[in-house]
From TrEMBL:
InterPro entries, per the entry: ClpP/crotonase-like_dom_sf, Enoyl-CoA_hyd/isom_CS, Enoyl-CoA_hydra/iso, Enoyl-CoA_hydra_C
Molecular function in Gene Ontology: 3-hydroxyacyl-CoA dehydratase activity
Record's keyword annotation contains Lipid metabolism: yes
Organism: Arthrobacter alpinus
Keywords for the protein's UniProt record, in alphabetical order: Fatty acid metabolism, Lipid metabolism, Lyase
Function noted in UniProt: Could possibly oxidize fatty acids using specific components.
Protein name: Probable enoyl-CoA hydratase echA8
Membrane-spanning residues: none
Top-level taxonomy: Bacteria, Bacillati, Actinomycetota, Actinomycetes, Micrococcales
Family recorded in the similarity comment: Belongs to the enoyl-CoA hydratase/isomerase family.
PROSITE patterns (alphabetical): ENOYL_COA_HYDRATASE
EC number from the UniProt entry: 4.2.1.17
Single GO BP term: fatty acid beta-oxidation
Pfam families: ECH_1 (PF00378)
Catalytic activity: a (3S)-3-hydroxyacyl-CoA = a (2E)-enoyl-CoA + H2O; a 4-saturated-(3S)-3-hydroxyacyl-CoA = a (3E)-enoyl-CoA + H2O
């Protein structure tokens, strides 16, 4: 385990685990914390020994938002010049699949960080919300866009305009989270799910992630074109040859890039 004070990183087989570690502030996301999360995720991304990343918090709080105390006195110009929150755009560009294991509060930037991950597995006590409106601001780490794409306009608009918190059951019903599990088995479940991904070909999971994400960026025709080029690119990998040969030989695939 490596301690960077604001986060902990560990390797579980081929899964890189990032644990937010600021319990005294319910994992409020300071700028320094964002930099540490990004550095850890980028290091895992470049590591051929890592095939998937899990990001998690504590049983009480995944993260209670961006750090309000750090932001409160900032001017608009200071935020503009420093490009505040841009660290999270860089995190969204990490190509290795990332699973968020969310228990407790996932509010504001916490909900947005969870949505930057490729999918969310939630503990039964998870609470999602974008309460920024109560602070006189709006979401700043992608929430107005990713929440709307995840759960649709009506519910996203209601949550962003009123600050209403959504529980785990509703989050699953609306498609915000992939699955709800007991809090006690959340991390184990997320690590096991990530291990399944990490057992695939890393370049191919990266290509798959890019193709699915294209659905949020472009038209259907262009998205299908991206998908078609991407599957053709898979045929340039030795892992495609191995995967299909293993099927025909009736044996498990031994991917080279995992
Ligand atoms: N920033 C800074 N500190 C925070 C914080 C945040 N987002 N959330 C909690 N904390 C701190 C509290 O100030 C408190 O510190 P002190 O003990 O020094 O006072 C400590 O964490 C524990 O919090 P509470 O005592 O409030 O705990 P609680 O269990 O009573 O309440 C809570 C929990 C409902 C999550 C409450 O802490 C809360 O409402 N937090 C703020 C949620 C929020 O508004 N998030 C959005 C932030 S803005 C944002 O994220 C912008 C963006 O889009 C990027």
């Amino acid at each position: 385990m490596t301690e960077n004070s604001l986060i902990l990183t560990e390797q579980h087989g081929r899964v890189g685990l990032i644990t937010l570690n600021r319990p005294e502030a319910l994992n409020a996301l300071s700028d320094a914390m964002g930099q540490q999360i990004l550095a850890a995720a980028q290091a895992f991304d470049k590591d051929p020994g890592i095939g998937a990343i899990v990001i998690t918090g504590s049983a009480k709080a995944f993260a209670a938002g961006a750090d309000i105390k750090e932001m409160a006195a900032k001017s608009s110009v200071q935020m503009y010049i420093s490009d505040w929150f841009s660290v999270w755009d860089a995190l969204a560009r990490v190509r290795t699949p990332m699973v968020a294991a969310v228990a407790g509060h996932a509010l504001g930037g916490g909900c947005e960080l969870a949505m930057i991950a490729d999918f969310i597995i939630a503990g039964e006590n998870a609470k999602f919300g974008q309460p920024e409106i109560k602070l006189g601001v709006i979401p700043g780490m992608g929430g107005s866009q990713r929440l709307t794409r995840a759960i649709g306009k009506a519910k996203a608009m209601e949550m962003v305009l009123t600050g209403r918190i959504m529980g785990a059951v509703e989050a699953e019903q609306t498609g915000l989270v992939a699955r709800v599990v007991p809090v006690e088995s959340l991390l184990e479940d997320a690590l096991a799910t990530a291990a399944v991904i990490a057992g695939m070909s890393k370049p191919v999971t990266m290509i798959a992630k890019e193709a699915v994400n294209a659905a949020f960026e472009t038209t259907l025709a262009e998205g299908v074109r991206i998908e078609r080029r991407s599957i053709f690119a898979c045929f340039a990998t030795d892992d495609q040859k191995e995967g299909m040969a293993a099927f025909m030989d009736k044996r498990p695939a031994e991917f080279k890039h995992r």
